[in-house]
Amino acid sequence: GYRARSAYKLEEIAEKFNLLSGLKAVVDLGAAPGGWCQVIKAKSPQTDFIIGLDLLPIEPIEGVHFIEGDFTSDEVYEQLLKLLGERKIDLVLSDMAPNLSGMNAMDQPRCMLLAEMALDFCQQSLQPGGAHVVKLFQGEGFDQHMQNIRHLFNKVVIYKPKSSRPRSREVFAVATGFK
Ligand code: SAM
User: ipTM surpassing 0.85, yes or no?
Assistant: First the structure.
């Protein structure tokens, strides 16, 4: 079993979009409690470099490097780049979501900022041909962000996993073929 039900969303996405074949190096943003890292470990034995990053501490998983900290802080971002060194990444995952206040006018911009920063990180770290899966919330800024992703990848699909609650506004952008 997985630590989080959200693991089934990645399982479904990875299978449907064939994200795991030849996958060597992965960064998982917003990784706690570690469900997505567990999926990569379980389904992709050839992956030999996994970094998980979260504000919250994560129980260790063998072979996974965890960074505890805020992805939007310069210090943590530098720590991440340092851990990568010269290495390029095949897949950047982001299931990050801020603690929602319930007030859309506050929550939506914070969600979009996390997605934008994840896309910036893709530009710094992805291998040509690499992939990106990012959780997005439909609302203000969504269409613009989809355009930004489309600019950088050959193929981008919006996907709502069956395991995602129908009432939640979350969807995943699945982008492949990083230019
Ligand atoms: N994919 C994970 C799994 O399967 O275990 C679940 C991730 S959970 C839905 C979203 C996570 O994003 C939370 O653990 C939260 O702490 C993290 N998060 C939100 N904002 C963040 C930030 N600025 N930096 C790092 N992590 C962040």
Answer: yes
